Amino acid sequence: MSTTASGKNGTWRNWGGNVTARPAREVTPASVDELAAAVRRAAEDGLTVKAVGTGHSFTSIAATDGVLIRPQLLTGIRTIDRQAMTVTVEAGTPLKRLNVALAREGLSLTNMGDIMEQTVSGATSTGTHGTGRDSASIAAQIKGLELVTADGSVLACSEKENPEVFAAARIGLGALGIVTAITFAVEPVFLLTAREEPMPLERVLADFDELWAENEHFEFYWFPHTGSTNTKRNNRSAGPARPVSPVKGWIEDEFLSNGVFQVANWVGRAAPAAVPAIAQISSKALSARTYTDIPYKVFTSPRRVRFVEMEYAVPRAAVTETLRELKAMVDRSGLRVSFPVEVRTAPADDITLSTASGRDSAYVAVHMFRGTPYQRYFTEAERIFTAHEGRPHWGKVHTRDAAYFSRVYPRFAEFTALRDRLDPERRFQNDYLRRVLGA
């Protein structure tokens, strides 16, 4: 099954199945010049333009009734600079292809998210991240960007060249232009030892600061309706590599995490009353394991069970209180939640609209199985997140608008002023950007 968003009879649909759009036309440019020409032609026809990757966003950030740009021909590595330790890659390259290509060259990104289906430009433009004490989101590893702006010109930016564009465009929401290439900082490939083990929620919350401080990459999953979590600690290792055996990997990552979990969710959707019992079983299904491998084989995992997701970044100091409030809400609500809640962290960064901009952050993500009603759960969760001045992931479900963002992002006006300069006629506008950035 393809993990890209699908189109049938001119309708574009995202991966989560909760967003559809009917563009006036689709363009698949084979070069930056062709992409620039498509933007100029859209302007002549009075149409808006959006580029779309694999449709992994749960918001309508990529939806358009104008020109839909598909970047699947703009893929591959342009250059590797071993002196500067950077790699420049075309914007439509899927992260999984980048990770494999880098590993072949003996290189790696420093940190990454847990899904690698997205294109590099889609992932960075929405602020996709993993978890890290010292290392931040994928966008924070960008050293240079090339983008086609509203007038069809090609703009290069870095800390030295157009630095004010660089400050914002690394997480540009598709509002400043269409990213055509990204230069990432890379390092020699290294080994990570992953230690996964179940732990009571109360212990994780009590020891959270310690678990965060002692591990380069700490995260945990809490199973609603239980007091159980599964924790994951990833730390650099001198080796040797001890990967998960193919059979054990298939049982744990495919059979339990995808196959059985899919069936459990089907049962839960059909009979919500069974969800707490299923959650108890799910929380005990994965046993402790330790393995050592190259980064992308440790950080990422297959996600074949489709879901809808909301995720907020709260100040790191507020995360345990946020979790306690979330648990209390689920316990008293009568809601039936079959997906675990994921908790990760990121250090403060300097990107204008990064969810970690200017503050050490913790991410709390709530999910619902695709096709089950999620509005009530997400509404209640969002009330908790926003009380802590949470910032929603730009590519995940939320109901916030420009008035809210101007309060929780100190540099919000800096971004909108840059947008006014680069896209005065709102060539890259859509309903989502109108809501989150203002008219």
Strand content: 15-25%
Largest sheet: 8 strands, antiparallel
Let me know the number of strands. 21
What is the 3D form? globular
Calculate the mean pLDDT score and round it.
92
Assembly of the depicted chains: single chain
- Specify Rg, calculated over alpha carbons: 21 Å
Low-pLDDT runs? none
Helix share, percent: 25-40%
**Within the largest sheet, what's the order of strands?**
17-14-16-15-19-20-18-21
Q: Structural class of the helix and strand makeup? A: alpha+beta
Tally the helices: 14
- Whole-Å distance between the termini? 38 Å
Outline of this structure?
The protein has 439 residues and is an alpha+beta fold. The chain is 33% helix and 25% strand. Helix 7 packs antiparallel against helix 8 (275-285) and helix 10 runs antiparallel to helix 11 (375-387).
Features:
439 residues; alpha+beta; globular
Your description of this structure?
There is one protein chain. With 439 residues, this protein is of the alpha+beta class. Helix content is 33%, strand content 25%. It has helices at residues 32-44, 95-104, 120-125, 163-169, 201-206, 208-214, 246-270, 275-285, 295-299, 319-333, 375-387, 402-408, 412-422, 431-437; strands at residues 6-8, 11-13, 20-21, 25-27, 49-51, 67-69, 77-81, 86-90, 107-108, 142-148, 154-158, 178-185, 187-188, 191-200, 217-222, 228-237, 289-293, 307-315, 341-346, 361-369, 391-392. The two termini are 38 Å apart. The mean pLDDT is 92.
